[in-house]
Amino acid sequence: MGDLKDKSVMVIGGTTDVGAKVCDALGKEGVKLTICGSNKAQGEEFTSSLVKKYSPNLQAAFSFTNPGDRASVDTAFKKAKNTFEYVHYVINCAQIWDDGQNWTTEVDVNMRGTFIVSLLALEHLGTRKNMSAEGATVFNVSSTLAFQPNYLMPIFGATKAAVLKFTRDMGTEFQFGLNKIKFVAVCPALSRDEQSTFFNMAQTKMVLPYDELLNAWKKVQINNFQTNEHVASEIVSLMKSNPKNGGVYMIDGEKTMPPPPPATKPTSAAPKGPPPKGKAPPVNNPDRFNLNELRTDVTADIEKAIAATKVSELSKYAIFVTGGANGLGREIVKAFAKEGCKVAILDQDQTKGQDLAMELCKVHGKAAVMFFQCNLTDPKSFEASMKLAKSQLGRFDVLVNNASCWADNLEQFDKSISLNFKSVVTGSLLAVNTMGTKRGGEGGLVLNIADTLAFIPAFLTPIYAATKAAVIKFTSDMGVSQHYAMNKVGFLSIVPSGFSGSSLFGEPQNKIMVSGKDMMEPFTKSFDMKQAKQTAEQVAQNIVKIVKNGERSGTFLVENGNFKKIDLPVVSAKPVLM
Predict the structure, then answer these.
(1) What is the share, in percent, of the chain residues with pLDDT greater than 90?
(2) Annotated region Disordered: where (predicted)?
(3) Which of 93, 87, 117 is nearest to 19 (CA)?
(4) 574 part of a folded domain
(5) Mean pLDDT of 451-473
């Protein structure tokens, strides 16, 4: 075991909960401690109390830090280096629990904050930009909820899945070779203190505020869980043990965490079959087809001929596709339109969206496809467009959250979080509130598009891959039987491997995390879409097949022009490694 005495340690989120206990445990080791927190008065008082408690062995300074604010974190790094000359360890403990009205703040702190701290660690401590740097070790605190089912906190679990995936990709040999910084993921099971807080929380902090769900979870005995002190002690022990770069360490050393409780009512697996049938969209609605003032050459005779070909079991349903004007989204729109579905394109690109809608209407009938311009990263714009689309199409049965982008560098990665994950959560919750039977809907289906980079090493695109890991975890937790029983809305993750025709990873020199000419060759080789073994059209066709199969939950891998349902790894809560 190594000695931490006189090592410089920076703890983000160090004034409350596990972070505060970590600081206290480090105080006993005689470290040089920079405590970062968002409450200045509380932080200064806590820091002063630790110095007094462990004097003269402990040197400590407080830095007012908002983990989701780049400038604030940058200042904290500078203060730590100026005060103690260097930073040997960074421990990122900052997190909040709020899947309700403040879920975007939860994402900003838990997920975005981890990315900011980690990327600034490269800037300040990495050898690529600092010739005198010694390297460092970054510990990112995730949770066992990153890989264990939890229907009450799907957004929280998704943020922790993103932290876990990001940390593993940053802990690859390739990344270490660039900066000599080790990255380690720590996954504590829920502590007794966290459970107590969670049980007493207001229902406004639940993703879906239903009494049935919360009451079932409260049956778990909170005295079976470990303490924050134990978690902190294990983190300090891990620091001393020279942990493996890219390692994942689970902390659950006192009691075994029980599995999630069963559904509130005995239910069989979510039934297969097409989305719930209801009334067909009205035919003679004077306001229905005038949104885009569609210009078509479709005659009455052509309309009859088209109608005669609509034999698909999906033909009565309305499909909403985000990012449907370009790339894979465009092919998804075309594939569902071919089935006779009414399709709404929700996209920012007005020119391509309207052109595609008019093109497909000439083939499949007047107003078979309609375009609705919206900013998917703006919840109000998303909601307004979704309501308008339902009004114009007459119903809403399936949402395909397809829109995504790539940008991993410090200046642009917010785009990846906002479009790839936040918009998926926004769309999913809007869909549940619109289609769900709790609100008078008929049920339906949500398909969230991920990427195989969520599963495999992605050392060149760690933030993009992390957002896709978050999508899969969120979708998995929203698709459990407890949620389906409440609303009859199914959730599927669609995970395509690389396909030709994609421009997603274009302009790498402007978007890659670590810039430099030496990075272009490995990137180009890794993302040569010409080597893909399937097309976007084949991926879209498989998505239609999955919906036709009547799948209501699960994760589906689409590769080599075919699909298969895959099981996500679920880790038991027995003590592992720690």
Answers:
(1) 66
(2) 250-289
(3) 93
(4) no
(5) 93
- Residue with the bigger pLDDT between 245 and 210: it is 245
CATH number of the domain within which 142 lies: 3.40.50.720
d(CA 337, CA 281): 15
Do 376 and 241 share a structural domain?
Answer: no
Asked if 168 and 248 touch (Cβ cutoff 8 Å), the reply is yes
Mean pLDDT of 459-467: 92
d(CA 12, CA 63): 9
Domain interval for residue 330: 312-566
Domain boundary among 251, 285, 303: 251
CB atoms within 10 A of CB 238: 19
For 53, 405, 559, 570, 573, the CA distances from 40, given in Å and listed in that order, are: 20, 37, 51, 40, 36
pLDDT of residue 507 exceeding 50, the answer is yes
| Strands (E) located in 171-279 | 181-188, 248-251
Do 116 and 245 fall within a single domain?
yes
Which residue is it, tokens 């397809």? 402
What are the percentages of helix, strand and coil residues in the chain, rounded to 5? 45, 15, 40
- Round to whole Å and give the CA distance between 106 and 425: 12
171-195: average pLDDT: 90
pLDDT at residue 282, rounded to an integer: 37
As for how many domains the chain has, the answer is 2
- For 284-308, the DSSP string reads --TTSSTTTT------HHHHHHHHH
Residue 283 has a pLDDT of 35
What does the block give as tokens for 420? 């790839």
**Predicted confidence (pLDDT) per residue in 283-309, tens digit:** 333 332 222 333 344 455 555 554 544
The pLDDT-based confidence of 1 (bands split at 50, 70, 90) is: low
Domain boundary among 231, 251, 271: 251
Domain match, 220 and 339 both:
no
CB burial of residue 243 (10 Å; 0-12, 13-18, 19+): buried
Write phi, then psi, for 266 (nearest 5 degrees).
-60, 120
Phi/psi of residue 103, nearest 5 degrees: -65, -30
Instruction: Give me 313's structure tokens.
Output: 């079991």
Q: Is 576 exposed, middle or buried (CB count within 10 Å of its CB: 0-12, 13-18, 19+)?
A: middle
Helices of type H across 294-349? 300-308, 327-338
Mean pLDDT of the chain: 85
Does residue 190 carry a pLDDT above 90? no
User: Which of 292 and 490 is assigned the larger pLDDT?
Assistant: 490
CB 32 within 8 A of CB 59: yes
Largest CA distance in the chain: 91
Residue 513 located in a structural domain: yes
DSSP state of 518: G
Contact 489, 431 (CB under 8 A): yes
- 456 belongs to a structural domain: yes
Whether 436 and 348 share a structural domain:
yes
**Residue 166 resides in a domain:** yes
With a cut of 60, say whether residue 572 has pLDDT above it: no
